[in-house]
Fold this sequence. Notes:
CATH class of the largest domain: Alpha Beta
Oligomer: single chain
Shape: elongated
Amino acid sequence: xxxxxxxxxxxxxxxxxxxxxxxxxxxxxxxxxxxxxxxxxxxxxxxxxxxxxxxxxxxxxxxxxxxxxxxxxxxxxxxxxxxxxxxxxxxxxxxxxxxxxxxxxxxxxxxxxxxxxxxxxxxxxxxxxxxxxxxxxxxxxxxxxxxxxxxxxxxxxxxxxxxxxxxxxxxxxxxxxxxxxxxxxxxxxxxxxxxxxxxxxxxxxxxxxxxxxxxxxxxxxxxxxxxxxxxxxxxxxxxxxxxxxxxxxxxxxxxxxxxxxxxxxxxxxxxxxxxxxxxxxxxxxxxxxxxxxxxxxxxxxxxxxxxxxxxxxxxxxxxxxxxxxxxxxxxxxxxxxxxxxxxxxxxxxxxx
Length: 352
């Protein structure tokens, strides 16, 4: 997905009108999920909503809007993904095309929220052919909203996914809630060795935050991705204590003893979404025996993933391990997201 920061940069860099394309309803098999967005100007496109004929039709419609002397402020494209679009996905997608510019009031609020890294959402509402957008910074004005909208906002902020609330008749009346914090989860990675470097390389392009911890400053690369925080410390317990709930943790330091100590401290928290420990089955047995002697029961030990990575990808090269481990983390994150979706099923449709 093209992030809001990138879209803001493009909109501000030109005085020409722009059209924002946003995926709304996404039912069945579709190229991209609800909330995916791209930007179209008369000469360029930024981002993608899935490519193929779907994207071609959307871009063509956006260009026609821009070509009008007084371009419409918005339109909704309803697109079955079948033979008519030369696609065989079999799903159904609705796209919202809308003008976007520096003079939009919500655009200024959006920039402010992003700059302040506030816990905010963008609410897009289409009702009776009237389109409105507003940025809501929690908990500002939330009590004045309907209960289903309040619930959807809470769920969107927790999951990092967009939520679409539709009318039962699937008419062009909906509310789309998009979290402005596009980092869907935080991974704390202990260890800057070869595998650690490969994991950061594989994971950093995705919408997440990475805290990378090691005592050896020289092991870190000179240039770090923008969503990676380098933490050089001899006291990893301080990082553990400062970590937020529902975090993802990977333990792969240069020392087995340090691995053991970090794992034990992480187990004490009991609030992580994923705890991975690099190692063989032999290391697992030895660590689990020692952890048992420290008082951890079988249920607690079962929350430790060791060996890490998908069993169907058992490669030993650091890049192979990284691919396998990142796939496992994303699978876990996806699984948690699906479970959270069920909590708001009666409020509407949530995707992504």
